[in-house]
Amino acid sequence: MTNPKTGTQEITFASRFSAYFQTDVAKAAAAPLSNGVEIELRVQAPENSGPLEVFVFTRKLGQNTIEIRAASKPQIAFTLSPASAEKILDHHSDDIAEMGIFLLHLLTASDANERISFKMKAGFFTLFGLGYFGVIKLGGASFASVLASKGISGIHAIKALLKKATGGDS
Questions:
Q1: pLDDT (tens digit, 9 = 90+) per residue, 117-130?
Q2: Is the residue at 4 inside a domain?
Q3: What is the pLDDT of residues 131-159, one digit of tens each?
Q4: For the chain, N or C: smaller number of CB within 10 Å?
Q5: What radius of gyration do the chain's Cα atoms show?
Q6: Model pTM?
């Protein structure tokens, strides 16, 4: 991405995730999402020393886009350590379910250097209306099986998870 202050090209997490979201599997996985969705990604050291980078995944005209800014109204906010960001960027698969399972393992990792944390900023109906559940559906039976092994099976379990993740009613 181009640094707006210097005009030079920099290899940043944002630029690398921009390329990542242009892969065929990422395009296919994000296809159910509506234009205008906002997923904020923060890369920061586990000791909460402040973000190294903040950027937004969004969809514009049906295309995956990364914008270097804080999200104005994110539905989901992810915090990644530099190590977890590297793991995602280094992991290659052409299978949506396998990618989802890999990300789920990072979300539940016991090692803080590898774990991804998230905060839901929108409720069930907003997420449903913007196509987020279509992404889960694309994972198919193998992804559903892993979710079930984590105690997430059925609409009531998903709503309970969302309620916990948002800290309120969903």
A1: 989 999 889 999 99
A2: no
A3: 998 998 898 888 888 887 877 776 666 66
A4: N
A5: 16
A6: 0.83
Under 8 Å between Cβ of 138 and 95: no
Contact (CB, 8 A) for 43 and 82: yes
2 in a structural domain: no
Instruction: Specify the pLDDT at position 170.
Output: 43
The pairing of strands 38-44 and 76-80 is: parallel
Q: Please report the DSSP string for the chain in residue order.
A: -B-TTT--B---HHHHHHHHTTSHHHHHHHTTSPTT-EEEEEEE-TT---EEEEEEEEEETTEEEEESS--SS-SEEEEE-HHHHHHHHH---S-HHHHHHHHHHHHT-SSTTT-EEEEE-S-HHHHHHTTHHHHHHHTHHHHHHHHHHTT--SHHHHHHHHHHHHTS--
In a domain, 8, yes or no: no
**In CATH, what number is assigned to the domain containing residue 146?**
3.30.1050.10
